[in-house]
Amino acid sequence: MSSRLKDVAALAGVSTRTVSNVVSGSASVAEETRARVQAALDELGYRPNVAARNLRAGRTGLIGLAIPELYSPYFGELASLIVHAARDRSWTVVIDQTFGDPEAERRLLDGDGGRLVDGLIISPWALGPEELTDRSRDVPVVLLGERQPQGLADRVAVDNVLAAEEATAHLLASGRRRIAAIGLQPHLRNETARQRLEGYRKALRGAGLEPDAALEQPVTTLHRKDGAAAMTALLDAGARPDAVFAFTDELALGALHIAHERGMSVPEDLAVVGFDGIEDGQYANPPLTTVVPDKRQIAERALQCLADRIYSPASTVAPLDIVVPHRLDVRASSGRRTG
Amino acid sequence: MSSRLKDVAALAGVSTRTVSNVVSGSASVAEETRARVQAALDELGYRPNVAARNLRAGRTGLIGLAIPELYSPYFGELASLIVHAARDRSWTVVIDQTFGDPEAERRLLDGDGGRLVDGLIISPWALGPEELTDRSRDVPVVLLGERQPQGLADRVAVDNVLAAEEATAHLLASGRRRIAAIGLQPHLRNETARQRLEGYRKALRGAGLEPDAALEQPVTTLHRKDGAAAMTALLDAGARPDAVFAFTDELALGALHIAHERGMSVPEDLAVVGFDGIEDGQYANPPLTTVVPDKRQIAERALQCLADRIYSPASTVAPLDIVVPHRLDVRASSGRRTG
Fold first, then answer.
1. Strand ranges (DSSP E) for chain A?
2. Domains of chain B, CATH where assigned
3. pLDDT at residue number B36
4. Looking at residues A52-72, what average pLDDT do you find?
5. In this predicted complex, what is the ipTM?
6. In terms of CA atoms, which chain B residue is nearest residue A250?
7. Contact A71 B84 (CB under 8 A)
8. Under an 8 A CB cutoff, do B279 and A94 touch?
């Protein structure tokens, strides 16, 4: 191991003692030096004896991941990436599904009587940011998705307004005018859905169209069955959409299913665009156009935030608002209108 | 709480002291009595103070769930059910993805230096049952899926041979004769795939057909992309299948995708049947026929096995081999041949 420390020290241009201080989480290293050493550690793939380090520091080596639902393909893919990346840092991930149950979110923070996790990554549904980031808990928290203007904790997300605006603009550019939005959850504090609706409306107004309430279809949850129910409701109400922007791919796939059942051609009669970039969409018939968040970067940046808070608690950096990239993958479900 | 104990005692026909002994995991209660009390506890939804009980017994209240991949819809749905059912028992689930990495499976058993979990549910890919159930670890293990004739640990699974035989017989009954099997993994110790191949061949032979090696298409992993690659390989090799039995729904959906791309009608030109009963299949175009394991029962029975081993370690019941029910959901992807 000492030769490895030497390699890291040489690359970072510091003494092995400084490397050792960084690895042991000592607060005596200047932030700039620490960052340089960390970069060298990362580059050389150095894996310190984390168990020993945790023991000394009173840590468990566990980080919590609280997601609303594990059986959603989006959260499944994201959790998979987070577990994978956490392993590189010798962390074990404790995953919990919250189902919008505040008690579940609290339990992950508290463990059974004692503190269970060293840090928590949470996609909140139930607890507000105030409770999640209560400083008396002393557990660093990273929020996924939700914007929280108070800046109470680090946050990692795509620009949902911009992404939704681009998806809707893509449909407008292909000649669609009656674009339905499926995915609002008025019964929940779902900030993500609110932002996607905002982007959708912005694009419509940018094209000189006034948003039509009859085309904005709410849902209960974000799965295929909800997309199917929303599409059925739109068609039965005579809303005559020529396109659908669904706030998740699962909703989009449910809408696509109903379009087929009703004998509509996709994309000729109805263009469909989803959000999340789940693998399923590539194999839909036709393949689904979707907004793809960079999930690998969401996982990596969230873990980096946690590591910084856990191992450099002395640093008083203000909560970060990290925006990760997204792209629009255009596939056959939203081809140009030929009719 | 005492009135609750009294209710349980009355229902089970024992003293409150006996209920208390069962709840505290004392070994002094006869197995038959313990089972009766447990049934009463379950029926009345009694939730004991597990934190205190764990503390006294040197337990962590954590159980491990080791699955190959979290982003597979089947394992996502199963993990979701297990996490949900574990909460009813006041257990927190630590999920790890093994990706066929033996180190990951060992780590879950061992924690970081100390024992992390009170018990482990594992769908093994990497470690053999001998290592998983090494008694020196003293952690009860429940195996999902893999048959292990030595009877080293409790095991919960569907009858894969029978289920595959039924799925293939269904295709034969609809007039198919060149039924491809997609899903063998010759590079892995995947016992489940081997059993499904056995059932497939058994059905063919039962119909007087000799299995054709050209129709048995191996795969690398069990996802849509592998199903698509396998279907492409079958068609390009001129195997002329009139049906596909895929060992997972994801493989089936990948095969379905290629059939569409090649202009084949489903089910007219090609019938497709999958395995797993994932939600995605219901919304495929056409909806996918599939073997549906009773996942809720897999989750419940696996947790019950763990609870029995953890709270009644003195009981010397031999390892159980629990077979949970399955059914074949026939949908449009395998309709009767009309041509």
1. 62-67, 92-97, 119-122, 141-144, 154-157, 179-184, 216-218, 243-246, 271-275, 289-293, 321-323, 326-329
2. 2-48 (1.10.260.40), 58-157+295-324 (3.40.50.2300), 160-294+327-334 (3.40.50.2300)
3. 87
4. 74
5. 0.70
6. B280
7. no
8. no
